[in-house]
Specification:
Layout: E1 3-11, H1 45-48, H2 53-65, E2 74-78, H3 84-96, H4 104-110, H5 114-123, E3 128-132, H6 138-152, E4 158-164, H7 168-181, E5 191-198, E6 207-215, H8 221-227, E7 237-241, E8 250-253, H9 255-258, H10 264-276, E9 289-296, E10 299-307
Parallel strand pairs: 2-3, 2-4, 7-8, 7-9
Antiparallel strand pairs: 1-5, 1-6, 4-5, 6-10, 9-10
Length: 310
Amino acid sequence: MPLFFEGSSSISHQSPSANKKLSLLKLSNELNPLIEPQYSQKLKPASLRRMNKPVKMGSYCAASLTEENEQTQGIIVGTGLGCINDTERFLSDTIEQKEGTLSPTAFMQSTHNSLAGQIALQQKNKAYNMTFVQGAISFEKALEDAQMQCELQPPSSLLVGAVDENTMQLEVLLDHLSSKLSVNKPFIGEGANFFKVGSKHQPSTIAELTYLDTSSKNESESVFLDRNQINTESFDWILNGGFDLNSNSNVLNFKEYCGEYYTATAFACHLALLAFQNLLANAPAAVGSVLILNKFGFYKSVITLENVKI
């Protein structure tokens, strides 16, 4: 079932573009903070006070893609760790208070589906609402679900997004693991990337999702590419997230600009849409097709997008 992208909104470690080309800057091993917008531009201050970081990021991106009082026919979110900071806080409070009387706020906000639910409440949307927690292929599973929803009951539009946050506790744990395993710890990123998609080609359509597949098997990269019949030379641009490629095509390691996190492929999709609109300085001119490859442990995924405006 075809899936068409009509727009995207992103919060990342890169400065956002305002109707001008975005120039990506590589992240260093030093602290590269997430560049957060003025949330009050899109969200009510009274609501903001009750939101944690992932909910604020996702709600802002969703509001940026929809008009006031507009209701999409579904909200689908992928996340690897959900609202992990609130989970940590709730568990810490449980230990400190020796499982005594606890405030339910951190627990309610720590659930992985709180973001999709909050967006639905803000938009008064009673349509399909789903959250996918599938490790490093959470965003890809959200896209697959969007395809199925379009096939079952073609909607005019859906909101599909991905959110993950980083925390100090997560950094401490990864520092310990990298030291224990004698491996270099990558820069840990975070962010939110949302897309407005639909089953029909609209005047506002930017790109079409032409292929998507994932794997959680312990198989080699070459076997995965061969099984999916992927010829890297047939694409105008490759956004690579960990594959060992011997390609003469234009290749960009997108994780150098967003860091490593479970739903980083959503950031890559956002970059592809910017390239199709000629809004990304780091992309080749007149990009017609993009191949997105990602590897995270045993997880592997491939996404191909076609520019429908060429």
